[in-house]
Amino acid sequence: MDNKDIRVRIAPSPTGFLHIGTGQSALYNWLFAKKMGGKFYLRIEDTDRERSTKEYEESILGALCWLGLDWCGEVIHQSERIQLYRTALEKLLSEGKAFYCHHSQEELEAERQRQEFEKQPPRHECNHKDLPLGKEGGGIIRLNVGDSTQVISFEDQIKGHIEFKAGLLGDFSIARSVSDPLYNFAAVIDDAEMEISHVIRGEDHISNTPKQILVYEALGLPVPLFAHLPLILAPDKSKLSKRHGAMAVVDYKKDYLPDAIVNFLGGLGYTFSKDLLSREEMIQEFELSKVHKSGAIFDTKKLNWINSQYIRRLTPSEFKNLTGLNVSDLAVPLITERLEKLSDAQEFSYLWEAPVYEKELLKWKDSSLEDVKDSLTKTLVVVEELETITDESLRNKLELLSVDTGKASPNNRSVGRGVVFWPLRVVLSGREKSPDPVQLAVVLGKDEVIKRVKEAIGKI
Ligand code: GLU
C-alpha cells in the first residue's frame, strides 16, 4: 500500500460527549495518519435519530479541536447518506444475501432464553431467509450469513490473528428498514466509500469486526485492515466509568491543558521513549504495531504530574488568558511552579487580592501577639527603607533582624527567623503554607507589602 493511500477515521456517535477513550482512539488514528503521510477523517454516526443531538456533535467537534486533532475535509454525517445505504441494502436483498426477518420479539426472546439455558451464545439463525417470506418487506433486515461452519479471520494490526466461527454470529441484523441501517452495516458502507485503509478503534468493537467482514464480502467490497486498541481501565482494572471521575474530554478543560491530555493519553497505550513529549515527537516515534495489546490503567496522579509540567511552561500571558486571572506577570511563575490543576490557581488569590486571616495565625510557635507586633514593626521599617524590594536586599535585612530577635534564645537560632519570617508569610498570604515570604514580597511590590503589614499591625 502506498502511504498516500492510508486513510483512517474516527466515527463517534453524537449521543453523548466525546469519551476520553474515544479521544485516545482519535489520537492514535491521528498519529498514525501523520506518521504515514495519510489522511485522518471525522465521521459522525448519527443514524440513531432519537439519541443523536446537534449539541453533542458540536461538543465532540470542539473537544477534538481542543485536543488539536485536526481532520481532513468536511465532517461526514451518516444521516446525509441514507440513499447510499439504501442502495446497498436493496442490492443485498435482491441477491438473497440479506432478507427480512418476521420473527416477533416474543419468538426472539424465547430463542434467547433457550440459548442462555443451553449455555450457547445468543444469536438468531433465521428460517425465513430461504423462504418467500424473507423477500417480503416489513421485518428487520438481516444478513444471510450462509454456512455457519465457516471461520472468519483477520490479522489485527495490534493483537495479531483473530478468528470467529460464523455460527456464533447467527443471521445478524443490519437494518431496521432499507432507510434505517444499523451500525454494523452503515459503518461498512462508509468505510468502503471513504476508502478507509485501516479501521483503528477500541477493542470493544472486536466482536463487530467479523460481522463487518461478512458485510464487505457480501457486497464484494475490499476489506480494510483492522487494529483494535486496548481499553483504558479504572485503577481496579474494571471498565472505566463515571464513578471513576470525569469521562468526557470536555470535563478536563477547566483543569488540564490539551497538550497534557494528549501526552497522557498517548502514553496510556504506548511506550514512548520519555514521559513528556510533544505531538511532533509522538508522531516521529509512533508505530501502530507497537501499541500495547492490553489495557492501561487511568492513573490520575500521572496525569496531574504531566499537567503540572505543561503548566510550568506557560508564559504569563498564556496563563492569564487561560485562567482569566488578573495577576502580575512577576507572580505567575510562583503559581505555575506549584500547580497541578488550573482551577487550583484560586488558592493563590493572595497574589491579586489582600488575604483574610485570623490574627492568631500570625503567632510563631509560642510567641505572643506582642512579639508579632514588634517583629512586623521592624519589618515595616526595613521595607520602607528599601527603594524597591529585591530578593537579596530584603532577605539580607530580614536575616539581620532575625539574629537580633533571636538573641533572646541563644540556644535556638531558628527562633529569630520564625518570629520574623512567619508573621510576614501570614501577612502576605493569609496561609500557613505559601511560597517563601521574601519571594511573595518581591512579586507583590513595596507598596502592597507596606499596606498589608500596616493593616496587620493595626489588627493586633
Ligand atoms: N460509532 C462507533 C463508536 O462510537 C464507531 C466505532 C467504529 O470506529 O467503527 O463506537
UniProtKB/TrEMBL annotation:
The keyword Zinc belongs to this UniProt entry's keyword annotation: no
Motif position, 'KMSKS' region: 239-243
Location within or outside the cell: Cytoplasm
Binding site for ATP: 242
Major subcellular location class: cytoplasm
Enzyme nomenclature, EC number: 6.1.1.17
Cellular component per GO, a single term: cytosol
GO molecular function, one term: zinc ion binding
Segments carrying motif 'HIGH' region: 12-22
PANTHER family tied to this protein: GLUTAMATE--TRNA LIGASE (PTHR43311), GLUTAMATE--TRNA LIGASE, MITOCHONDRIAL-RELATED (PTHR43311:SF2)
Family indicated by similarity: Belongs to the class-I aminoacyl-tRNA synthetase family. Glutamate--tRNA ligase type 1 subfamily.
Known role: Catalyzes the attachment of glutamate to tRNA(Glu) in a two-step reaction: glutamate is first activated by ATP to form Glu-AMP and then transferred to the acceptor end of tRNA(Glu).
Listed name of the protein: Glutamate--tRNA ligase
Species for this entry: Candidatus Yanofskybacteria bacterium RIFCSPHIGHO2_01_FULL_41_21
Gene expressing this chain: gltX
